[in-house]
Design a protein that fits this description.
The structure is a homodimer.
Chain A (H helix, E strand, L loop, with lengths): L33 H15 L6 E2 L11 H13 L16 H11 L16 H12 L10 E4 L5 H8 L6 E2 L4 E2 L2 E4 L19 E3 L24 H25 L3 E4 L5 E5 L5 H12 L1 E2 L1 E2 L10 E5 L4 H15 L1
Parallel strand pairs in A: 1-9, 2-5, 2-6
Antiparallel strand pairs in A: 3-4, 7-8, 8-11, 10-11
Helix pairs in contact in A: 4-5, 6-8
Amino acid sequence: MIPQARLEIQKERVVCHTRVQRNVNLEKLQNGYLFPEISMHELQHIRKYPDAKLINLGIGDTTEPIPDIVAVSMAEYAHALSTVEGYRGYGAEQGNKALRKAIAETLYKDVQVKDSEVFVSDGSQCDITRLQYCTCSDNGIKTAEIVMENFMTQAYIDTSVIIGQAGDFEEKSGKFGNIEYMNCGPQNNFFPDLAKTRRTDIIFFCSPNNPTVYVTDDSPRSIFEIPGAKEAVCSVVNYYKENAKILLETLASLGLKVYGGENAPYVWVHFPGSKSWDVFDYILEKTHIITVPGSGFGPGGEEFLRMSTFGHRETILEASKRLKNLFS
Amino acid sequence: MIPQARLEIQKERVVCHTRVQRNVNLEKLQNGYLFPEISMHELQHIRKYPDAKLINLGIGDTTEPIPDIVAVSMAEYAHALSTVEGYRGYGAEQGNKALRKAIAETLYKDVQVKDSEVFVSDGSQCDITRLQYCTCSDNGIKTAEIVMENFMTQAYIDTSVIIGQAGDFEEKSGKFGNIEYMNCGPQNNFFPDLAKTRRTDIIFFCSPNNPTVYVTDDSPRSIFEIPGAKEAVCSVVNYYKENAKILLETLASLGLKVYGGENAPYVWVHFPGSKSWDVFDYILEKTHIITVPGSGFGPGGEEFLRMSTFGHRETILEASKRLKNLFS
């Protein structure tokens, strides 16, 4: 029943077929990852309107220069690598010792985590995949049941699919059969009621939540705990915060229900009764603005759009103007 | 039949047991990764001889400063991030465009690879794991058969074990049941005879081979293809090459059969009839020199030791002196 994977290399008219079979779970992935899908819509739009001035409030990439103090520090480290005293070979496996100590003492002081228990990794997405492999195996026994919030960054769902823990995708509900979804929405401040959740082996939380950036309590530890960091980074953060305020007020003034945007670089806009890809296409067609359809984050995001507020000020002001023209 | 995985958190006398089962394949891993194992031997040695002047020819970490031209370039890029013109957000998914173009034109010119076909990843080890997931799945069907050289970097074997493709470890042969091993040794210039190899789905090559650094042909493309790079990097490379020459000549003068070391930062020393961990322990005990037991690279490395020639010149000279005293 497993289709033979085919690799066709069409060079000098030589066509090669491999007999190596593909992981059957790859076929269950839904439309690839969200952002490549958005890029395809963007490309089609550019072909249709080659002269349009496109505004991208999609993936949420930063635009403002980082503070001098950070850049200078990185540059000094790079320079030192060309000196006998400053040269370093392989980094420490678990991360720079001084950094691990600072993390333990600054971020985890209250819970008495030791520096030897801190691990500096190359990114949470890779690590979540790797952690999942610790509980699953290829022996056909489903060893892990998974619960997720009903919208969150899609990458974590994809890894569950690839390792065969997600089950089959059900078109109608937009859900995978072996994943429990916890309801998150404005009604519960975007945090699920765990008392109502069935007991499973793994629970995925995304806190602060992407896309809404709601947090599970009001005191997330961050870079701002480090003395001096607040001052250095503050002007950049305030710049983006002002962007968010502009966009949030614009959308609210148009009668739209908006979440996030207050201590967050995203706004999460509700379009009751609409499908999010439809709203995405409508806004792109009418205003040349790229956003992110909420359904890309899971079934709970179906009536929402995410808009990034990273960007130069004039871009955010122009986007606000176009949205005002469209919706008022 | 699967043992219940147990996670015990002993804090304030609260002991937690999780009902989440561990991936059964993790139990099949052999002694963890080679270098942590060596570190344990090193630690025991330091406890036994706290005043010994240890020399590390083990993991092979570089010691000499990198050329100015490289450090300055990195420092300039870091500095630019604090300017409006130089700031960059997310990098391009498939890698920096100019870099991909340069790689295609410089390294793959002869085989007409386009820049769009080049992918700059975060390291070959992660990628090999990910590629393996494309061909295996958890449905109990063994979809990939694997062939490996009979010694190579151990990490690739471990990933095969974790995803359940390696089968069970056989103590006596030092081999995994589902892996075919190709014989590599001095008799075939460390490259296997593919005509004698059974047809399988995946073949792992390590070329230039680590540890012997033998290559599959005599013209590997490298950083030296880039105009100017040769001059800039040459003095550092020549420094290590001279190290290798010193160590190689020392060992050869003692009547030992030595491979590699000519265009390579490692020497691969043959101790016929000996077990490599025994030779490792003997040399450590008598000379306080850390090396790498060849069996850590697979069953074909059993009678060999790898010695790194990265290091300050005086370290290599001192190591040569100690080895001469021991073996002459």
